[in-house]
Amino acid sequence: MEALTNERRVEGYAWMTLTRAFDDTMVAMWKQGRGLGGAFSQRGHEAISVAAGMALGPDDVVAPMHRDLGTYLVRGMTPDRIFGNLLGRSTGPTRGRDANLHGIGDLDLGIIGFISHIPQALPTTLGVAMAFKMRRQPRVALTTVGDGGYTSGATHETLNMASLYQAPFVLIIEDNKYAYSTPLDQQMRSARFAEKVAAYDIPSVRVDGNDFGAVYDAVSVAVDRAREGGGPTVVEADTMRMLGHAIHDGAEYVPRELLESWERRDPVRAMRSRLADEGILTEDQLGAIDRTAHDKIQSAVAIAEAAPLPDPATLSDGVYA
Amino acid sequence: MEALTNERRVEGYAWMTLTRAFDDTMVAMWKQGRGLGGAFSQRGHEAISVAAGMALGPDDVVAPMHRDLGTYLVRGMTPDRIFGNLLGRSTGPTRGRDANLHGIGDLDLGIIGFISHIPQALPTTLGVAMAFKMRRQPRVALTTVGDGGYTSGATHETLNMASLYQAPFVLIIEDNKYAYSTPLDQQMRSARFAEKVAAYDIPSVRVDGNDFGAVYDAVSVAVDRAREGGGPTVVEADTMRMLGHAIHDGAEYVPRELLESWERRDPVRAMRSRLADEGILTEDQLGAIDRTAHDKIQSAVAIAEAAPLPDPATLSDGVYA
Amino acid sequence: MSENFGFSDVEASSGRFLTYLEAIAEAIAQEMKRDPDVLVLGEDVGGDFGGAFKVTRGLAERFGDERVLNTPIAELGFTGMANGMALMGLRPIVEMQFADFISSAFDSIVQFAATAHYRWGGAIPWVIRAPSDGGIRSGPFHSQNPEAWFVHTPGLKVVAPSTPADAKGLLTSAIRDDNPVIFFEAKPLYRSIRGHVPEGEHLVALGEAATVREGDDVTIITYGSMVHLAMQAADAVADVGVKIVDLRTLKPLDTEAILEAARATGKVIVLHAANRNAGVGAEVAALIAEEAFEFLDGPIIRIGGADTPVPFSPPLEDAYRPSVADIADALKTLAAY
Amino acid sequence: MSENFGFSDVEASSGRFLTYLEAIAEAIAQEMKRDPDVLVLGEDVGGDFGGAFKVTRGLAERFGDERVLNTPIAELGFTGMANGMALMGLRPIVEMQFADFISSAFDSIVQFAATAHYRWGGAIPWVIRAPSDGGIRSGPFHSQNPEAWFVHTPGLKVVAPSTPADAKGLLTSAIRDDNPVIFFEAKPLYRSIRGHVPEGEHLVALGEAATVREGDDVTIITYGSMVHLAMQAADAVADVGVKIVDLRTLKPLDTEAILEAARATGKVIVLHAANRNAGVGAEVAALIAEEAFEFLDGPIIRIGGADTPVPFSPPLEDAYRPSVADIADALKTLAAY
Ligand SMILES: Cc1ncc(C[n+]2csc(CCOP(=O)(O)OP(=O)(O)O)c2C)c(N)n1
Ligand SMILES: Cc1ncc(C[n+]2csc(CCOP(=O)(O)OP(=O)(O)O)c2C)c(N)n1
Ligand SMILES: [Mg+2]
Ligand SMILES: [Mg+2]
What we know:
Bound molecules: thiamine diphosphate, magnesium ion
Oligomer: heterotetramer
Helix content of chain A: 40-55%
Largest interface: C-D, 47 and 47 residues
Strand order of the largest sheet of chain C: 3-2-4-5-7-6-12
Order of helices and strands of chain A: HHEHHHEHHEEEHEHEHHH
Strand content of chain A: 5-15%
Number of helices of chain A: 12
Helix content of chain C: 25-40%
């Protein structure tokens, strides 16, 4: 585990800021009609996705989901490629084949592209972990699932096998209180996920998903355990989906007070003030990071919007390897 | 709950004896080549299947599985009909359409016919329970799953929804140590099922599955709770599959010592000696029960073997309701 | 949207106009009112939200949360639950959030529901509503047309309406049918077409195709959103007399209507949005090649999706999907044959 | 068993004879020896037991438990696990205990494995071995032929060998193929036929049909166990010259071989054990009706299973399943046409 030095925290803040800037810009573009198809805002998940990405080693593999934008960025998928995918450009990782964040895999970056069908990323990621185990490689596979995906059968099958085979597998449960319009209490009788996974004899820990340091430490411990042959771990991240399920969704079903209380816990601002309060960065330095993020995203959008759409003649390319 | 009087215990012994007699005869027939297709012996499961059947009320519905022969008998499916199904006769509950115990449903008897695909009986039975709840009927739905079926995704989805909706649903987990050739320790890291279902906030109890009284009491408590609106319960029955997975399977993979230790706990003999030791029945009376069971099965076989095979002209009858 | 689903009927006919989506919602509400055994279940269907497409909006308020039941993400489990409800005589209407997710419920449909009545007489009177079809830039997992999997599976019924009136009439019949019926809604039509829909009880029998355009030269056999493209192509090729048969029910197929049309024109195009390879159109073409062979005056042309996942980007999806031009070309080819 | 699968080759050819099952086992063992990335996983495949049909018996002892991995009952999960292994370059051979249970793994196959390479270049080099087919009194859930679901799904390959030599050669090619391949084994053939099988490395290319009997009057296009029934029917109708095409690979189809045969005889029977309705035979017939129309001298007759679940009792299953008599009658009808 790489200790969470102040440098790492600053790095984390920069990634979280970039993630937030991407998200804000994407939301604005889609509202302006500059988007294509649907898009998912991950607002509120920055600490989880960035910390998860940073806690992994370069040879580890991750299958991020639809709210894990920060993980893609930390792993080296550039904003212009992701915007390219969102806009159906031939420069996106799926060359216009898959939508929004779906399928933006790149094995060179150790990223698996996910499919809509929840929670398919779980057994897939377990298989990656099993490959590492069988090859005696000190590598770890990580993925995430939402509170909604937790109730799906493949979650149970995967957790049982991950424990049975003691695979180097880490699962982050993103407890963001809703599955689309359905609140936790309409998904399961109780939502103490960390206790639930005891049924699989898998160690788990619950953390404040809006606290970058807490997530980073918890995931790092889990990754180290997996790497050292200690088997799977579940990290339960307590957080909140701050916007609708997707951009078209106004989320009127979410009580405003709930959003306000979580707004006060905004992960990016929280990180920012910590760095300021602890005197690690000056306001100028923080502002510089924010501006850099903003500029990177603007140029990424420009690159993506200028990129060509795929040639229809390529329709059938790549159906088979 | 109907108290377990001595009369009930004698009744239970009679059903267990009938179940065992059916099983012995079936195994012998199949070994002699008088069978058709495959067949599953339930030897060792008599206490569970009979007690479960007896603990249910007349209006309750049950989806017994492939080791629950006793439940079918207690619910009123006659041995000749079941043999008729095993032998592909038009007199079986599936009129020659489904094999062995598969699909021998009869809604007039409150029995749902199961399919091979494990554990499909779970969500189906939950749906039955939900129908009772929605109609405000004081009825209960019960099914069983093996240790193997427990690891399948639909088990998780069903237990979560049964708890979420507080359905009048009872599940018996038949922990008989093997799923086909696969021992418990190759199915899951630990097999404390009662503890596992705490993940769903479902009350559970572990009982000696070879002790008729223990199973009867546990299932009765569960059924009463469900009937009174107390929601689902899981009963974990500790037992052993005494023969192969199916008749063709010699089960060489099962350690002989394990079988011998369980043979000493044979549920039918255990019940018999209790009734004798407690002076509830004399040896003559017990012998009479045994002979009656034997005779009933012999005549059932005769009836079934004399019954006609289905008319090929009926092939397409009943595809649609 | 890449296609104009504008439905001539909107201009043409008179009276009460509803969108395809409104017609579906009306059928559900009317049947729930008529029969207390009818209920709705699925992800996000309940409360004020009323589902991803808002089809069930308002039902919870009117009929209570228990009859408009929100489920966890567990298609296999809640469809299996619907099997049990149906065995007890309830008539669940299961909403798949998108037809693409019906594969997650596969065992509960093709193994249990499809076989229960044949095996032991257990009737399963449910309807699965599956918002299907593409053309609206939704990518590989929100654009699928999986009907062929179910048409091949004995024991199911499969329906795919093309107009608001048929959507209401077929859904009403499906709800009252005692068998498992998969109802494929063409989501590109939800709000893009309006049509006259009878106000009260309206039943369209399952298993009956409709000839929606008469013509003597070439028959187009199709269903769902493609009916509208076929209409446009026929208009575009005015000199060819085009008969259009809207199958409406895909299982059981209206074989008589299919063969009659094939015999009448001797030239046939089979058209659907689903990928062409081993699709429902293959069954229709094979049926004609076997039963109406002597009447054929030309090859049976099939037009369908490419043998690829449904791609997201406009140029790719447009290349994937049958177009008015593809149909018009086939009409000209056959007419000239 | 209701059918005689006795394979003439047993008498005819010379050399080394293996059963269909032995040929499959040999291919697996040879590929595991050759390539350390090849492994086997599934229910009960490991240890001394070696699977429900004993196909993998002895492999655990030879290659270790980790490469012959017993799984819990979790088809969706362990097939999804195979997806991840395959993405890392392993070549898992997944055994479905019976083909009937492949529906439990549906999402992992049709949604993830079939689309990963098209969407983002993730290759999935696994093989699913699925013991399929009936005729052996195993009832609705141990007799299924579900290949049509997968032939309709873009991105998969589907194989169905009819002889021991092809079983070895096609399985070897499937294991080395970089795509997800579903390998349907006709379990009634497992021990009922023997044939000459090359000892060492033996490859049969995917996508190539074989003409297993020459004849000028009628072509039978078929695969799997039905190839043997077609042979018997052809022998029974000696005065008709029967060409028999064994498709061997169902996806991608060898369209050239199909069309060539259809053009050569002008009369075609398409035969399979799977239920006829919207089966693979529909695609074959539709292809011919579109591409070889001018060459047809008679209707394309399809013979397949009834549109019911596969029934258990002998009289019902025999009525369900194509018989030598059914095929012989069709041959006579077409010959006389
Ligand atoms: C099998 C399946 N059913 C339905 C959906 C549609 N769907 C997409 S995201 C979503 C909600 C997921 O909730 P959760 O797992 O909590 O993740 P979150 O969106 O809250 O991050 C649903 C129902 C799906 N993708 N897959
Ligand atoms: C989905 C599925 N996969 C595989 C099978 C084949 N199969 C039938 S019974 C069985 C073992 C079941 O074990 P368990 O649940 O413990 O019940 P038991 O037979 O021990 O009573 C298996 C693997 C099946 N029926 N369904
Ligand atoms: Mg959530
Ligand atoms: Mg067991």
